[in-house]
Design a protein that fits this description.
Strand content: 15-25%
Radius of gyration: 23 Å
Largest sheet: 10 strands, mixed
Helix content: 40-55%
Order of helices and strands: HHHHHHEEEEHHHEHHEEEHEEEEHHHH
Structural class: alpha+beta
Amino acid sequence: MSVAEWSGSLVEWEWELRSWKARLGPVFRRRQLRETGGAFLDGLLSGIERKTGWMMAEQAGLPGPWRMQALLGKSRWDADALRDEVRAYAVEALGCPDGVLVVDETGFVKKGRHSVGVARQRTGTAGRVENSQVGVFLAYAGRFGQALIDRRLYLPREWAEDGVRRTKTQVPEEVAFAAKPALARAMIGEALDAGVPCAFVLADAVYGSDSGLRRMLEGRGQSYVLEVCGDHSLRFVAAGGLIQADPATIADELGDGAWAAHAVGEGGNGPRLYDWARVALARRREDGRERWLLIRRSRRDPDERSYYLVFCRVGTTLAELAGAAGLRWTIEECFQRAKDDLGLDHCEARSWHGWHRHVSLVMAAAAFLAKLAADLRRAAYGNRNETGLDRSIAA
């Protein structure tokens, strides 16, 4: 294999991008909208620092920002239709039987109060309570990469119940207040209904603590590894009868022989190695599924632990569960690329439709980059196996 092949310099960027724009054409319906949508994607993928209407218009050679602004505002097209295309495209590029769905939220700090959904609320982006919007996102991760495939703007109750602000920001009548886990349930359910191949659903404690999400996934027979807090209330039947405890207490009682070391991907200084243990939470179900409490412990500080509720097929190994839990970072990588490189947090539109349109277009740009990277990795992986340099992985 030549350097050009594994370095990516042979990637047919322009051809791939034209193909992706052509596929998205029906979403925009009219020729001018298709052209503006294509120019918007070009701007997102360009090196300009701020993905604003003025700067992207200048990048496209337009006299002003009006067409870019109209694309997010008064023009007629369906952002959910674009989302559907992005999801299908990303799954075609990344999908595999052992892929995972990851749900998480990210914040968009704002100075004013007029953009839809803005409120004083906690956001992990700032690490504190800030004047911000919060979006709940769903990502798909496979062995060749990851991409965002769905999004919902969280509408705080104060917004959901304020008719004046709803009207000003064009919030649809059918949109009511919904907690973040409810938004996650809807996105995951739609992805599974669309046939997205998924070995596990992953989420942090905000979503893992939601019993409604766990019931929904178990009703579908869908495996999950969902984080919970150390004081999460657990009730289950063991050999000695009904047990009521919490994850931290159970972890405290485990002996040294209960733990095994497993790596969960690469860190800045090599493989990220942790100690892992699991405790059965119930008898095996008749459908061949079982529930576990999974515990991750730092090897440097044994008091630093994370806890996960697990629903999986009988026979799933501890190493498999540890590997799945470690994949939750993939959505953070999606957020970082989308914000740092593609302007996810540069949205100027204040309306409900404007936010979802801007974010969906950024997701389309990110999915394009994810496909190029996946194609390159897949080609390098195939060539490596053909030359016999990776027989252990191929086996």
